[in-house]
């Protein structure tokens, strides 16, 4: 009788274990639905949601580190046509994007518009020296005028250059090169990023995700236009994706992320490259693929970005984007040290040393919420000069040269306090639910199997005893 009761008990235990395992299995889709429902609700950009609170504020501090290219042999280049040699100087670091979004306005079509105020505060503790440090750099006016003024007027330009004691290169402070100085020829302010303080980027109009969470943060309009007007081509003028600060939730590693960058006046895509731990949070890293700035001969999609066949050697040059039509000044954008660029770009200027680790752009995005928790945007600002029979400073120049002036690393990452809050509100709950699901499934399965095996053993022993 006792043996029968034991078998019944073990069978009951096996049934209970199976029920517990089934409960664990049921919790998996139910738990996923709960997570999806919570994230969908909190990812909408409207007052009261987690996404809105993080989106509207200035958020984590954003820093721009600058390295300027100090020309080591300016006289040799001008007088003898020597290949220029440069050495990067930096970083000189500024705190930027420290101002919250402004003019935030909700619209009936589930979009919200805003502007991004711009400002730069020098950070001495994060710099190699004061911003008054001097460097020998390309003369912005001379290079710019060479590109803009027809060759027939180069004689007049030469008179202006000589009369102001200017040349192809100039000695300026870091602050002047970046933020502006009074050019002796123009009599006006000139600088790589002049004007910057007290200006803004935008206005932007983005989707809130209220009616469709898959559209959250996607750009509807930039500067009140749904397309660009810089490239004379429908494809290149498209505004795709977000501004890269966040993306629609529930990322798929196989799907690229698209974002628009006003710095380069175009949209680009980034592809998944790996999963990393960021202060206890798993993030997907997305990087710009080499074909982003590939030559049109290698990536036909880039043909509409090729604007000057002479400078780009019949559009066979890789690694440089002419943004003159966007900036109103002859500027060429590349990755630092011409990373992924044509070899002759680095051969034309000695001192280049491209590194995937130090010069590539990446985004670290939390895959459930779509929030970008860390990023590094790295760009190089270049200008162009070439030979001229009428400009004294360019008479010995042998070929058109895309010349680097400075490169920047704009970076930000969530701090410990924000990371702890993020883990508490999302990661810990997801982990708890996952552990509960796995625990119930594992324990239930184990109890079911062990009880079933034990019942079989007891039943077999009973049979042997009965025969004996």
Short note summarizing the structure:
The protein is of the alpha+beta class. 31% of the residues lie in helices and 26% in strands. The strands form four sheets. Strands 1, 2, 5, 12, 13, 14, 15, 16, 17, 18 and 19 form an eleven-stranded antiparallel beta sheet that branches. A four-stranded antiparallel beta sheet has the order 3-4-10-11, with no helix packed on it.
Protein model, in words:
There is one protein chain. The chain has helices at residues 2-43, 50-56, 74-80, 140-148, 154-163, 174-179, 324-327, 343-348, 356-359, 416-467; strands at 62-71, 86-96, 102-106, 111-117, 120-122, 134-138, 169-173, 181-182, 189-190, 200-207, 219-222, 257-261, 266-278, 281-287, 320-322, 332-334, 362-365, 372-385, 401-413. With 468 residues, the chain is α+β, with helices and mostly antiparallel strands. Strand 3 and strand 4 form a beta hairpin. Helix 1 packs antiparallel against helix 10 (416-467). The two termini are 17 Å apart. Mean pLDDT is 86; it is low at 9-28, 443-449 and 451-455.
